[in-house]
Write a structure and sequence with these properties.
Strand order of the largest sheet: 4-3-5-6-7
CATH class: Alpha Beta
Order of helices and strands: EEEHEHEHEHEH
Structural class: alpha/beta
Largest sheet: 5 strands, parallel
Strand content: 15-25%
Helix content: 40-55%
CATH architecture: 3-Layer(aba) Sandwich
CATH superfamily: Response regulator
């Protein structure tokens, strides 16, 4: 298993380096993908790339080596967001945060099996994104 290396940048006015996530966003709705990318960037996070389906996300992750996946669960194609998260965690050690409108028991059970860093229900607020990312960085 190849793990993505954490990236660092200088912390403001401290001279210390802090880790920050390189995020790949997976969302099939173009408007939501654009909104999510913009909100994450506004919060100071680095969005390395955006994919519209699981297969493209796997290719993108191989190429960009992110250290966080934010994915919708319901995606077009044969690989949904849960399976995408499972593959990326198993093969590369990339943690995931699900951003979805699905909250039924079966979906939650499948999602929990991947041990996600977070689970955010749509519609979401900036604080939902920030809290999930920051809490996950402490794990």
């Amino acid at each position: 298993m190849t793990k993505s290396a954490p990236l660092t940048r200088p912390a403001k006015n401290t001279g210390q380096n802090i880790e920050y996530p390189r995020i790949v966003v997976v969302e099939n709705d173009k408007l939501i993908a654009h909104l999510l990318k913009w909100r994450l960037s506004t919060l100071g996070y680095n969005v390395a790339g955006v994919a519209a389906n699981g297969s493209d996300a796997l290719d993108l992750a191989k190429k960009l080596k992110p250290n966080l996946l934010m994915t919708e669960i319901s995606l077009p194609g044969s690989i949904d967001g849960i399976e995408t998260a499972r593959i990326l965690k198993t093969q590369y050690g990339i943690p995931s945060i699900f951003v979805t409108s699905l909250s039924d028991k079966q979906t939650l059970q499948r999602a929990k099996a991947t041990k996600p860093q977070g689970y955010i229900l749509k519609p979401f607020k900036d604080t939902d994104l920030r809290v999930a990312i920051e809490l996950g960085r402490t794990q």
